[in-house]
Amino acid sequence: MPIFPKKLSRKLENRKQKNALRILPNSNNLIDFYSNDYIGFSKNKVIFENASQLLFANNFKQNGATGSRLISGNHNLYSQLENTIIDFHHVEAALVFNSGYDANIGFFSAVLQRGDLVFYDEYVHASIRDGIAMSNAKAYKFKHNEIEDLKQLVERLVVSTENEVYIVTESVFSMDGDSPNLKAFADFTTDNNFHFIVDEAHAIGVFGDKGQGLLHELGIQDQVFAQIVTFGKAMGCHGAAVLGSIQLKNYLVNFARSFIYTTGLSPHAVATIISAYQELLRQNKNREKLLENISFFKNQIEELNIASLFIKSEAAIQCSVISGIDNVKKLALKIEEKGYSVKPILSPTVPSGQERLRFCLHSYNSKEEIKNLLVTLNKNYNNG
Ligand SMILES: Cc1ncc(COP(=O)(O)O)c(C=O)c1O
Predict the structure, then answer these.
(1) Domain at 58-282, CATH class
(2) Is the CB of residue 366 less than 8 Å from the CB of residue 31?
(3) How far is the CA of 353 from the centre of ligand 1 (A)?
(4) Residue to mutate (ligand 1; options 37, 105, 132, 174; most atoms within 8 A of CB)
């Protein structure tokens, strides 16, 4: 048996001692309040069947992409998907990446240049932070959703107009479910000739008249330099895209390393994303059911008098902060014992002391399930 490096053992031991060791869970048959499958698209039969038909119609009998998109992997379903995205989101260009993680590390590491300044919300996703860390830009975080804090930082730190300034946020925060005042951020960015970047991972498929996202719903897409959408959440598939100008797309094809140096998505994966977009265009009922459930959940927490436990959110992600790893894990376990899957979010994913229970709502949750879940939370919270 090869020896395992001591430093790594110590880090694992440290995680164990903090009761924060990550382990791969087994799948379960509990009622789903933890997946990102917000509108049930991962199990949608129409999407599944249409994806197969699309492959058949295009005579695709190929399991893998066979290479990176710049070599042999750019099968023609890619251009069909990118054109679908352009029409659906009303943007000039789209570039599909293998995942949201890849899109963010590729985008930020390639776009941000030495001397540039990037201001990002302190709670942005790890993939954005990693991308920024891979760049040579000067990076500053502003307080979560606080535009005044951003303005003060900008006033203090932006001293010349020579370098570019980028402002980065998410339209729905993955660990909070809340949203910034996007219009105010967009206006501030436009007024100052900065560049605005918004990750819409948890808004696509949920907001907008057809699920285009929050920027579209607010009518401010034109003020954005780049918008990141992902397909692994409400779309029920896998992959992501950066939306923006043709010039930006050309730039990323040339410089985004997580795009260049990796095998493309299989034809089947791309066909599934195209079918998911077609399903978004075809029907609104799943989205409407989800929005109804979000509103029901919010009414219920008011009725049970537990709204103050929750971070304010209009999205499918609803979180209640339960400080302390042991506390939040214990509460999650009690709720699971009653038949509901919920996810305790621990530090270091969130700051220590701000551990939380994250409830993901779906079109397929019944009102009764939501009600019983919250009654269980309330009972165990008070007994805990
Ligand atoms: C805001 C945000 N951006 C990007 C990602 C990464 O997307 P993917 O799961 O497609 O890698 C996630 C995933 O959790 C996310 O929440």
Answers:
(1) alpha beta
(2) no
(3) 23
(4) 174
Q: How far is the CA of 369 from the centre of ligand 1 (A)?
A: 27
Give the ligand 1 atom nearest the CA of 102.
11
Query: Are 358 and 313 contacting, i.e. CB atoms less than 8 angstroms apart?
Result: no
CA–CA separation, 94 and 239 (whole Å): 13
Domain coordinates of the chain in residue numbers? Answer: 26-42+284-382, 58-282
Residues 77-105: tens digit of each pLDDT = 999 999 999 999 999 999 999 999 999 99
Amino acid (one-letter) located at 343: K
Tokens of 77: 């379903």
β-strand pairing of 138-142 with 165-170: unpaired
Instruction: Name the residue with tokens 């946020």.
Output: 169
> What CATH number labels 26-42+284-382?
3.90.1150.10
Under 8 Å between Cβ of 47 and 236: yes
Task: Provide the 3-class DSSP secondary structure of residue 118.
Answer: strand
Q: For residues 300 and 307, give the distance between their C-alpha atoms in angstroms, rounded to a whole number.
A: 9
pLDDT of residue 381: 80
In one-letter notation, the amino acid at residue 239 is: G
